[in-house]
Amino acid sequence: MTVQSPRPSWRRWRPDQQWEGYLFILPSLIGFFVFIILAVLFSLGISFSDWGLTGFRSWVGLENYHALFRDPIFWRALRNTGFYLITIVPSQLALGMAMALALNQSLRGQGFYRLVYFMPVVTTIVAGAIVFRLLFSTHGPVNGLIEGLAALFGLGVEMPNWLGSTRYAKWAVVFLTLWKNTGFTMVIYLAALQGVPHELYDAAHTDGANAWQRFRHVTLPMISPTTFFLFVFQAIGAFQLFTEPFVMTQGGPANASLSVVQYIYLAAFRDIRMDKASAMAWFLFIFIFIFTLIQNRMQRNWVYYEASE
Amino acid sequence: MSAIVPTASQSLTTQGRLGRALLHMALLAGAVLMIAPFVVMVVVSLIPQQAFLARDFSPAQYSLRNFVETFRVVPFGRYYFNSTVVSISVTVGQILISSLAAFAFARLRFRGRDTLFLLYLATLMIPFPVTLIPNFLIIRQLGWYDSYPALIVPGFFSVFSTFLLRQYYRGLPMELDEAARMDGASSLRIWWQIILPLSGPVLAALSIFVFQAAWNDFLWPLVVTTSADMRTIPVGLNSFVGQYSTAWGLLMAGSVIALLPVLLIYLLAQRWFVEGITLSGIGGR
Description:
The complex is a heterodimer.
Chain A lengths: L7 H4 L6 H30 L1 E4 L2 E5 L3 H7 L2 H32 L6 H9 L6 H11 L5 H12 L16 H25 L4 H9 L4 H12 L1 H16 L3 H6 L11 H10 L4 H25 L11
Antiparallel strand pairs in A: 1-2
Helix pairs in contact in A: 2-14, 3-14, 4-8, 4-11, 11-14, 13-14
Chain B lengths: L13 H33 L2 H5 L11 H9 L2 H32 L5 H10 L5 H14 L6 H5 L6 H12 L4 H8 L4 H12 L1 H17 L2 H6 L8 H11 L4 H21 L1 H14 L2
Helix pairs in contact in B: 1-14, 3-14, 4-8, 4-11, 11-15, 13-14, 14-15
């Protein structure tokens, strides 16, 4: 992907550039070693120790990890995060792809639609979360609209207090995330669609393929590398969901919408249990790593790479 | 031309027209859904609390009282200042440092270069929560807790930006450097006078991306600041929620104030925003 085999002359080291190369990298390298390499090792160390308010107390081996498995709130947070993953990622891909397909043609008002669909992406998520708190409040606009529509058809519906409900609070978080991020998916898909050669559609058309067949057998395989990228990218984002539940529901009620990263934050900075929080962070890391590895293996079955054919 | 809609030559048929109309209706419905939260935000920000409680949203009620009150109870001026200083510093610092490193990784030949670059790439996998806690402890150890360096310095270092720029620099013809060296130019001069001017578009797109990410960042500033004087806009806005959880007029006024600058820049420089974020997506593939 990134380390191609360069021309031989580029490979050879130049004696006069030995120290110079390191001088150019030095500022970056210092930060890299302090804030990434040192931090990762430090974090691993903390996760194997008893680390409280005063810092290091003793090594405890895997005790922090064992404690996690006995912590019902951690399991709750893990289940919630799984819920976010399976609700947010597929709907975001489907909606983003639909929007991109609709906008990938000459259409009046195209510029306006792109502008509007992308607007939430640049929005400060805290402000978005505040508005969604109002939108999903018991007597808020969402409930009002649905009840009003139902009344038109002579139906009486009882809408929930979304944010106060252990069942629906998670859904409010899902809607906020979809509103915020679908524009991003759309823009990436649009870029991919513009890369599909016209000749393929012309050829399919000549062969008598209808619109659905052209989509199914030309568009979908041609943009499958993008689908794969977006799937992994959005899944990693969903694993690390924090601000949306933090501002909108504070993880409540009764931890019903608590995400793993939010629980890491609370453990570290509210309960001052850096050791437990670090163990959770590593657990999440391993989880994401395995997930990505599996996806990488599975992509062979459905991702089409032109160059490799 | 997309595959699920008729081609231009067909668009005059009845079926084509019907399809177009349905497509426009769907797109419009989507636009309404996307824009509704902004409309609610602005309308409620203009409605005084009594009128809001009485559910009276008539334009006769509109006033800027919530904005005046918000500025009175929340130091938004200070938050703005902090966010501006932090975002601009992070953007300039990160682009310069990443660009220097990317230049060396792409165009200088020194021992250990490729190994080091692989090590850089390997760390792209590490999720943010893993480094959050140790970095907080490191910042506290450096005596930077609740200060500008805490908000700015860690933002200088980005493996992702380095990677992105390195890919771009690798694509520029190597003959440029060789010719300049023949004329006696130093590496620093080649970077500054040849490579940087040639990477204008990628630098602009990346800068916008870094800037908006820094401006909207929430978790890190939340963790390393405690005083109101050091809060950035998202953190300040969040603490405001804690104090006025149901004063919707004030909360919406605060949200409008927080969003206005980014949305204005977005409306003016939409193309660069979209390009910056697309670049980040495609570069990460």
